## 1
Amino acid sequence: MKLYDYILSPSCYKVRLLAALTGTQLTLRPVDFHPGGEHLSPALLALNPAGSIPILEDGELVLTESSAMLVYIAAKAAPEWLGSGDPAESAQIQQWLSFSHRLTASLGGARLVEMLLRPGDLAALQASGVKALRELEAALAVQRMKGDIFLTGSKPTVADIACFPYVALAPDGSIALDPYPSIRLWLRAVRALDGFIEMPGIHRLHELKPEPAKETA
Amino acid sequence: MSDPMIDEWYPVALFSKLDAAGRDTLLMGHPIHVARTGSERVAATEADGRSLPVRIRYGHVWTSLGEPKKELFDIPEADEPGRRLVDVGVVRVRCSPLRAVENFLDIAHFPFVHTDILGAEPHTEVEKYDVEIREKEDEVWATKVKFFQPQAAKSAAGGITTDYMYRVPAPTCSVLYKTCPPRPGEWDVITLFVQPLTEELCDVWPWMALYDDEADMTDLIHFQQMIFLQDRSILENQIPRRLPLDPGMEIPTRADMTSVAYRRWLKRHNYTYGAQLVAQ
Amino acid sequence: MFPNNWCKWTPVALSADVPAGTVIPAWTPTGDVALWRSQSGQLSASSDRCPHRGMRLSHGFVRGEALACIYHGWSYGRDGACLRIPAHPDLQPPASINTRNQITTEREGIVWVVNEAQDEPPPSFDGYWPLRSMTFQASIAALEAAAGAKADISGLIRCTLGGETAFLLAVTKGEAETIVHVLADKNASLAQRIAISQAGEQLRRDAESADALEGAN
Amino acid sequence: MGEADRIISKERIAILGDLGASTFIPWIERHARKLGLKTSFSTIEAHRIEMEIEGPEALIDAMEMGCLLGPIDVWVDEILRSSNARSSISGLHT
């Protein structure tokens, strides 16, 4: 599978992250999104007329929406990431995948304005971002009351991966995560998963490694 | 007393990305407009129409609100044949422009912020190195800096001890020279050009002049963007936002020698835009 | 509301939001703190600023019984004393390099912090179930108006949320910001707790729009 | 060098520069306290301060770093240490 990728794109990172968590091999094709604007080049527009990245190619198949890529990778390599198949759970996963697009538009929009100087109404993007975070926090608080840590249960699914990056990077758009205790624990649970990989802006959980022993002279 | 930083040159645009429509931006709190007026010509103007001096160097457009007493600093390596010049692009950071430079001069954070790339535990020790203020050039230099790195550059395959030299030729610019894995004996040049928007907000324009014939240009850009973006959350969460010129609330150690020299140089020149003068 | 004339302690978080091996940001009237719980379960409230170069310690990590700064890895023990400076691995740092910790204690699932020793412990809310902490962009007056109740002598606002009895521990962070720890009755069922949590969202909307209306007048 | 960080040493330190501000001595004492170092002053003049410092070398280095910058109303030209003839980052005479 070939991923048209940008190191600073949370949407591209979703795909890299799930691939890492499921042991899926990806061939990365870096796209000069910033400053080059290569995603709007004729070659990439031919692949994806929307002019967005990521783009995932697998043989004849071309996918241009990150949620679809997550579903594809999970279905191929690790179906447990699609949940148990219970109808309510499947629907909830779909709901969070849709919700993740609101995170992209709001938190991701604020991040593009604040960090990469793209045009946009920062205050409006931040306000809709806070609204989405509050919704997520409320849902995760209920999950914790039920004894679960992930969005749809005790195990992570593509829903968690779809929502994780833009939430973790909300501070890039000057939206503080301080007021959200349940979001914080959920982010940590995702970061602690076996095989987790980072992207710039998300630091290593150094606590998972023991303190290095003092070298004796 | 007016801040002598007003007479310095600052990067305000990437030349290759600047068109006739140009861009509106801020320089030390003043709105300015920068636009291309010809194939090799650029105009920079203040809001009242006053035109500002312009230089086009190192991939960027430079201007000044004051009257620069010195020409824009020289990077001789930029003209060496065989180097690949890399425009990394701009990243905005909510911090003092001086803090952005200070962080660039720091190696002790590599294992914790650039984990498994520029550093890794247990290789955290900062060995003694030399720092001086070169009087003739009026620049800060740190030399004989060594640090163990798991993946020092895009072209580095495994862990090596990397040699560094740091240079501060202007209050918001730094030039880093580091071991060049494909060409032993040569130095890769990585710069950090910082545009002070306000005292607590800056646009950072990294730029590179590398000996690397192999790597894809986009890979080189992504590598440097990755490194800088790992620093951004640090820079936005240091207290206070401005760079303290009095370390009374801090504890610099020998590993912070370049930081101390940089701050001393700022203090000596009264370069205080973005600085906090009294420790609080 | 807290702190007040008779209680200098501030309720800063719920115990459940700071599990072992984690650090979170918290607010007290005498400054921001990095609230952290060691691997063995001990809580500490360090000043949220590394004495070395000013990085917020709440961005750091907990290893064993120490809190480390994410910037340069300087680590601090439960008494605030510096334990390790990784750039100088052989140096035994002096205890005088210190994060100036506040005093912290837990009672019935609520974490309290105070900056100097008190004769009185913080109040006990035995018989209550701490549900979640929320940040309101609203004044305490707007909160009381939305809740339809004022704080009683113990500092607790008793009100009805989602048809259930709820208790609010309110902390005034600023003129227009209030931190609210929502408690339920200890015997509340899961469904009742979820109802209160969800209704907390409406309470926040009411309080925030009340403040917005006042601002418009 | 790792060894030196563990050894307690006693050094004479001379600070040279424009040191007249009354803020400096209390500043030095405060900074030394923060580093857990013992200091005793033998000379306090407008352009020269001399003191004896006792502690691990890495902390005396840290003391040197702090004092080189110092409070804003003081300018330190250089710091001489008995262990090495002159500080490695001094030498700014303008």
Note: The longest strand of chain D covers residues 8-18.
## 2
Amino acid sequence: MAEAAKILVVDDEPVVIKSAERVLRAEGYDVEGALGGREAILKIEQNSYDLVFTDLKMPEVDGITLIRWIKKSNPSIGIVIITGYPSQDTIKEALELGIIDYVPKPFTPAVLVDVTKRAVEWTAGRKPEEKKITEEFPPAMAAELDRVINDYKIKPGCLIPVLQRAQEIVGYLPPIVQKRISKGLNIPQAEVHSVVSFYSFFTMKPRGDHNIRVCLGTACYVKGIETVLCKIRDTLKIDIGDTTENRRFSLEGVRCLGACGLAPVMVIDQDTYGAMTPKKALGIISRYDPAIAEAVLQETVEEEIVEKEG
Amino acid sequence: MPRLTIEDLQKIKEKHKSDFTLREGGYRAKVTVHMGTCGIAAGARAVMTALMDEISKANVTDVIVTTSGCAGLCAREPLATVEIMNRPPVKYCDLSDEKIKEIFKEHILGGNPVEKYALVVGSETTY
Amino acid sequence: MEKFRANLMLCAGTGCVASGTKKVKDALIEEIKKRGLEEELKVVLTGCNGYCAEGPVMSVYPDEIFYQRLTVEEIPKLVEEHFLKGRPYQKLMFTEPEKKTAIPLMKEIPFFKHQVLRVLRNKGLIDPEKIEEYISRDGYQAEARALTQMTSEDIIKVVKDSGLRGRGGAGFPTGLKWEFASKVKSEVKFMLCNGDEGDPGAFMDRSVMEADPHSVIEGMVIGAKAIGAHKGYIYVRAEYPLAVKRLQLAIDQATEAGLLGKNILDTGFDFELEIYQGAGAFVCGEETALMRSLEGKRGMPRPRPPFPAHKGLWDKPSVLNNVETLAQISPIIINGSDWYRSLGTEKSTGTKVFALTGAINNVGLVEVPMGIPLKTIIYDIGGGPKKGKKIKGVQLGGPSGGCIPERLFDLPVTYEDIVATGAIVGSGGMVVMDDNTCMVGMAKFFLEFTADESCGKCTPCRVGTKILLDMLIDITEGKGKEGDIETLEDLGRDIIAASLCGLGQTAPNPILTTIRYFREEFESHIRDHWCKAGVCRALTTFWIDEKMCKGCGACLRGCPSKAIVGEKKKPHKIIQELCVRCRSCYEACKFKSIKIMPAKYEGEPSELVGAAEAVKEEA
Amino acid sequence: MVELTINDKKISVEEGTTILKAAQMNGIKIPNLCYDKRLRPYGGCRLCVVEAKGQPRLLASCSTPVAPGMIIETDTPKLRKVRQTVLELILIHHPLDCPICDKAGECDLQDVSYDYGKPAGRFVRHRKEALPDVRGPLVELTANRCILCGKCVRICAEHQGRGALGFIGRGFSTVVQPAFGEILQCDYCGQCIDICPTGALLSKPFKFRARAWFLEEKDTICPFCGCGCTLTLGIREGKLLRSRAKEDIGQSNGNLCGRGRFGFDYIYSENRLKTPMVRKNGELVPASWEEALAYISDGLKFVISSYGKTSIGAIGSHRCTNEDNYMLGKFMLNVIGSNNIDSSAAFGYSKVQTILDKAFGLKSHPINMKSPLGKDVILIIESDISITHPVFGLNILQAKREGSQLIVADFKETKLTRHSTSHLKMRQGTSVAFLNGLMKIIIDKRLFNREIVSKMTGFAEFEKNLDNYTPDKVSKITGISEKDILSTAGILASAKSRMLSFTVGFAENTKGADTVLAASNLIILLGEDTDALQIPAEYANTYGLYTMGVRPDAAVPAGKDIFDMLYGSGSLHALYIMGEDPVSAFPYNSKIISTLKSLELLVIQDIALTETAKFAHVVLPASSWAEKDGTFINAEGVAQKLQKIVDPTGQSMPDWQILRNLSLSFGADIGMRSIKDVSDEIGKAVREEQNTSDRRVFHPVSHLPVEEPDADYPMAFVTRDVLQHSGTMSTRSKALDLVVSEAFLEINEDDAGKLGIYDNSHVKVSSRRGTVYLKAKISDSVPSGRVFTSVHFPHGRVNALTNPPENGTAATGAVKVEVVKG
């Protein structure tokens, strides 16, 4: 929210105003109170408010009268009614006058915050809508994902294969993808997430164009993968599990690629590179990114100078 | 392949033997490039490609090129085995595309193993 | 086990049988008896040797003489010449038709000489993407025999008698496992293959799946017949794409050929096989965890009992075998249990594949008869340490195993002997370490692995491994304190006693064995703040011994942080403030002038170097 | 039986028993933190390890079954050492905040820690970072206190079939959380709170209200649905603060749903009546008991003298005890002299009884909550039993888990359909056609014993009536594919054992007596026992009030039923309503309102000022369920005692006492000085009716079309119960209202899109009977073209939309939905 929404709470009970103020101020809203409809009208005439929360049953100027007046004089103000056990008739009347929402009294902080948030969005012209996968990813991707889900769903134990295919399609497994799989396979979301978080193959972070996987097996350890890894980390400025800012590379550590004979080993995308040294590794990585190639070149030149000087 | 019967297994075995053993198949030589993960990582694909190029350049038709899995000695990959009729197989190691070209000319076409690249001669004990 | 002077390996491959193996064998046995040699010579029928055109063929071990075109008539002469007179019978020997070359023969190279290939029988010989090639090497003969001529009990008996033990780690007798599952009544059973080779430093399963996928499939069909399963899965690590591709191709080919799927070989037996790709969790190598993973869940192990033979995948009776185990099934079916027992020891029969890696010359996959001494594998096959280095020990069995010091290398490699050292045979990863390896660092490496791979289900493993790791990190950073070693041992033992599954029950092994055999390294880390291998950066400084430095400049050029200064041909010096302790100078120096010193050593370095060397000489 | 030795004690237990259970049964305590008898053994906490002679490894006693001759030691120095280490590891992360933790005093971890002594504290620095707590209504998760025993995760997924919590992450960094760390959204059953061995999961409404050791606990029966679960209520200083389940007692045996656990606070609703009220000058104003009772007796006497005794009617309540209901019956019969008495059971449970009597000669047919267990096939028709009867629903889920086939014919996606082996998506209100279709196939394919069955009464007509129900026709009516109908028939016919279950509540008024009749036919046709048909009584005392004679046919001649009284032609002049709110809860309320308005005397006796009470002449304050003694009979026919837990609110009195006082004021002493007098008389007067000897009669029954959507009213409309509520009274619970506080209109995403509806949009819903204003909720469990809502919420008054309750047709029908622009 660019600016805190300004809210006027109208009730003839000071307790209600107090508690609403306490709850909403904590959420960052600008809240004022008015004891009754008359005071509210005076305040609205002098200040501008985004939202008015009002009780219905008040002495003198009651809620319905206040709403009618606001709708006529300041139609842009959003109105929410706070009322104890609202009857169908009052709801109907208020709705016909054009209120946004109602809060049953007594309310809990959570309910009030929730309603306020919705009302603020409403006045700001936003539609409160759940994000759909097609808004984040191309529709073709969503369609492909659905196809995979449908193909697999009759097979028992298909969650892991589906997640693997999904990761191939989308590149990673953000919550929105997992939720779609949860629904499609009729598996609780928590279970999908728990499976995703269990296996190191799955990632919830987007990956780079090229995925560098460094073997952390024993043979590679003994043969010095750590220095290679350090070099890659330093050059790309990322740690294991991260992706470079330009989304070119992501770096992963893998438990033994089973190519111990060639230790230390590194895999980029589908290609395995053996007998790595820090320099060799950089040379290979630079094939995937010209910018890195330049940096490597620079370093080699420097080394040559040292060599000559020596 | 159609469904097999037990007799077919035997027949396939015999037929394969006659087709693919040098003696009965009428081939000059058989080259096996070892393409396990290690081999591929060490550059077996380039070796394979170079060999195929050479064969097609030389317009030779009686050399079988085949691939196989890991040969065991990962430290010396890429490895290839060259068999010439009536001679025990020779294993070459630490290959490159240049080396395989030389081996093709000298050993496969010329019949003389390239000692400097060779690792070992003979077959392993399998039983 | 009876000891024979020689094994006469007579080929009983189809080709040789066709050319008269049976008669030759009878004649041979008769002749041996006649000469009173039956105590000394053992005749073994083997699978195809590949020399079918020259059959029948026979090799004699350990003499490594190869005979061909045997006939009944020639047998008496051969036995007399070779086994009485002790000179190979030239007439039938395999002669080299070509001129001698300088290329060494297989038996001249120790790497090949000591190996016997059973699991890897087709390695490098067939194209794994062509089923015909597998068939041409007697492939699917065993399956055919098992499905047509053998009952479930027959199969189980042969496998049980062979003494084959699971090659995945625990070494449980395979035949017994099958027997349990076969006795459980259930319409649905599962035959599973564990291709989730997770131990870092072991890659024999990958090699078999890539080089000989049909051997795994054949083993599974035979196993399925034995236990009465009609559905199977091969659980393969996601890190092995080539293995997945080749297995899938093999399954498709075998299915198309009627060797897999419905009504196999028209025998009415069905067995459907599918590949299931793992998603990166070491603990899924544990059988109950693997089954959970196959069900699409978190791969968390489950307490046993109930055992998978009763309630496994989807609560149905299931058998899970390792790739290497399954690859041995078909030769056992063809050649019988006696053939299998002809190698190895009484309790550890047959051959085992080891993935030999680390600080040795010949890195690779080796298959040797069980019972052969560690040093044969490491020094002969592996070719010993790199030049100028000394082997310190070998890590056997991955994160569940332990480190065996060099002084125990006479030990024969059997399940029992290895367990007695505190390590395990495990899946057969052998990582050799030389004096450049810090043993505390090694233990830390494995604990990092297990702590990261612990599924988090049971308390001792989840929290305990993390604490062990934290303590080791402290020690390698110089924050260790007196009593840490004892605490590590004590906690380690409790974790072993209380953990739910094999992962936790073995996770402290690397620590316990390194403490057992390399305690002084721990002590030197804790008390002297000194990592003598120069690995733990916080506990290391490098110092150039001016007396030995020739000023060649090799170290200076290699230093990434430009911490070395010095003029050419004059002793160089390390500026400690700039040094990042990467060891590159140490590796680069040809004159051993660079010394590894304790981190905060304040005395005169030459004194310590002298003292250390004196101590070494004394020992 | 297996013989073994535990701690030198020779014991003998059944085969398959675990060591832990065997020890527990013999009074030997083995510490554990992750075991619960409802769940599969987990083996995670490792505290329950024991030594077995000859076994090198320790055994987890929770999962290892006993073996003959085992020699087990459960408390050796070695075990103490291992357990101490495990506890030490657990306590590294567990904050020692017992002084501010609600669980303190009844915390398993605390208990075990006391048993095993203070840990050595060797590893203090290796602590996990502070973890974010999980928010959500009713249930609070303090992540740092969690010891990852997984009981909550497992009970939610395995037992409740919900799976709202999961283990997130692996190894050391594992935490228990809802998916993606979002707000906990679940069934709010709170079972995880009871099962948590630490203070990680706590009840929000109870938080900081009382220390465990200050609570006085009393057991009573839940006031909501027909399951009749036992609640263990915690009271401090006369105030009811907490409800929880205790293992091994009552029909629920340790299980509760959210209503039972959180809903008890409805007794503290602001809306509670504290004094009698009498209408004066059009307004209800407080009055004294004497004044109110005198007003009523005068009014009743006037009506009797003007229109006769039969112009007075009464409505009893499923919320009231047997004693209350018995007293109402006795008051009507003995004091007024009218048989016009009925209850909400008329819409459901009474119908079922009438039909079962017709078909089988059954005078009473309680369900058995355990009946799903071990059945081959379970068929559920158009019902959401996991919502209406949550604990019965748990047994259905359990049966499915243990291998039963669960077939659910329902148009809405529910928890049962999600767990089903097959979900037949059926058009609402077409159960009769579906059942007839199944029977037609079973007959045509001769999948039954024709010889025996065809001789039964009514078979010929029954068979003839099925002629119209060929698979293709049934498929057209129900929307289920022919293939599915055929396969369902096959599965049902070939099953070794079956259970057929559905509810007939008026809140789910798409089914009627005809469905019960059709189902009975199926049972007879398959030669099944009558127990295969399980139709639970809806509410806490529906079964009881029926048994107590709150029904028009209890005496001769039969009196007016509820249809006559509320929807009839106006022959009634006075109505006495005890504990019921017809305006909110009964269908087609515009007719009810006009009936109520026409009465000369309307007396409402209830705990709160209901929508119906707003039309009353006199309103009497009754004590709530927790404020009185008495008995409820649950759907299983089991009578269970309620206890007075707290003092009555204001001047309220137990219903039976009000009725006694009213009798006195009326001038008739019917005795009953104490609750004991009432129950003694019930014991004498009320006899369980004997079932007629095993009669089996076929009754042809035909599908009656429902009101189909058309151009004017294009959406089909159905009412369904909401999990958090039961009847109307639970909506007065603040705790439950935190989850659902109003009648949302559930609508499919596509339909919502077309109409421009978003979540929480206000919509105007109209049917040919009336109009209501509701908020919309987009739901993917609703099929396109249909909308759902619930009738629990008095201010929702959804029953303005419903049809008159005529048998055979759905009370719900077609509506029009429009957005109300804000």
Note: The first strand of chain D starts at residue 2 and ends at 6.
## 3
Amino acid sequence: MLKNILIALVLIGFGVIFYDLFMVYEAKTELTDLAHYYAKNGANEIGGANLVTSIVVTYRGFDTLGEVTILFVAASIISFFLKLKEDEEEKVIGSKDTTELLVTASQVLVPLIFLFGVYVFMNGHLTPGGGFQGGSIIATGVALMIMANPNFKINTQIIHWIESISGVAFVFAGVLGVLLGGGFLDNTFKGLGVGEFGTLFSAGVIPIIYSFVGLKVGAEISNILNKYQKSQKSI
Amino acid sequence: MKAKNLIVSFSVLMIAWLLLNWTLDPLIVAIGIGLSLLISVLFCSKCTVFEGIKLGPKAFAYTFVYILVFIRELIKANMDVTKRVLTPGLNIEPGIVKIKTNLKSKMARLILANSITLTPGTFTIHVEGEYFYIHWISTEAVDIEEATQKIANTFENILKELYE
Amino acid sequence: MNNLDWIIYLAIGIILIAMSLNLIRFFKGPSVVDKVVAFDVISLSGLVLIGTVAVLTNRVIYIDVAIVYGLLSFIGVIVVAKYLQKGL
Amino acid sequence: MDIFKLIGAIMLLGGSLSLLVAAIGMLKMPDVYNRVQVATKASTFGAIFSFLGLAIIKFEHWFTGENWLGRVIILIIFIYITNPVSSHVLMRAAYFMRFPLSKLTKTDVLRDDTNSNLLKEPKNE
């Protein structure tokens, strides 16, 4: 009885808190100076429908480069500290360990999840997605595969190749901006234009840069998951 | 068999890409073709999910039959659940029974299990070889043959036309 | 066009009531599986709420958000089930 | 176009009522297995039906402009595959953790088969 009263009190408390939040909330309508500049000139200069993407990739491109680097360093340190055992013996899986239905469902779903991840990072300048989000979705697919099948092995070689190539390509696209455009990571190359506003092929090289960021993030997080799984097996 | 796997996987991915983008712009279609090819070669060169699928006008027609039957059973299941939940008192007789299926294809077994889960009163709790263990909210039959007859036969007959 | 919006708002109210009933089961649930199932039903209701908000505010991109949310809730339930069974 | 909005809104209402039934079933049923059973059926149906209703409300956007129909179809297929599978995995975990069945239970074939080692046990070496 006391427990039920406690539950009711907790629920009422939640209700009061959220009611206050909901009623007191007032949207900010005034823009600061910097935000005013972005809102006024962003769409014309960059050509992306999603202004956040323009800011993340172009106005603050160095910041994104740094974030990708942080993720890379984190992945390296995790794989450095985990004790890995490189034995390739296959575990015997009984029917109690994993269900056949989950394995089948994962085999159907994982390609679709990968496709959706690619869709998210290619449409980063139009929808509320982007490279980091798309990469995380791809890594979710890898996590599903690992969970469905305990004997699943990722080809680490491919992951490392994808990661290095996309990292180099990201910097290369930035340097191309110096040569053809107005500076490092400038997205509007001379003679290329920004394309028609609101279509997939607009906003210069933002979709391409975001694709590289997405591939790199997906590869790094998959690598972390893979390393964790390997260190689990050795216990 | 391998080529068939690739073709089915490729077309599923391509349809999903077109549904997501909802346009027939040639560049987007080209990107979709390349991407679907890449992903299906990466994942489905060894996979066994779509093995035994039948392609052809008859299978196409039976897909619609399956969807119609499934919708009918889904609505029936929800009438059943609503009746059980809203009438006062517990009029349930739960039990776990065993049914036998002859389906071999992985995808067909997944669809069969999902259909059993979403139809009136039954829930797939464990899969072991050719036996499915079913949690039944109002146990009407314990015998394997009789339970199979009552639970799985409608869907199994349709799925046999779609997969072999 | 606006005269039919009250049905949508009524549906939102019903979904919120359903979510709070599930919340009771979530707090009370005798076993951990009860809690996870309650969480699963809450996330599915949340999915429908996201869709409803997308229709009310006329923004199609919220449906993408719903897809990602459904994916995450699926993976979350499977992780918990695996953990309960034998430790990942 | 108003008729489509009416149909869609009524479908949305039906779906939300189904979600409410799922919630009441969660509170009423006596053991884990019956709860999962009722909640899965009702909530899956509720979600699928509501999203169909939402797509029908936006009927005028089906062939021009924003892509409502395609995304909703993807979402419905996704819910159809994932929700029964995740409930199945959860219920299996509950069963093999030996959560008690309700006293009303009539028969349990799986318990007998597990005890007589008909199921394949993983080998421990």
Note: The mean pLDDT of chain C is 87.
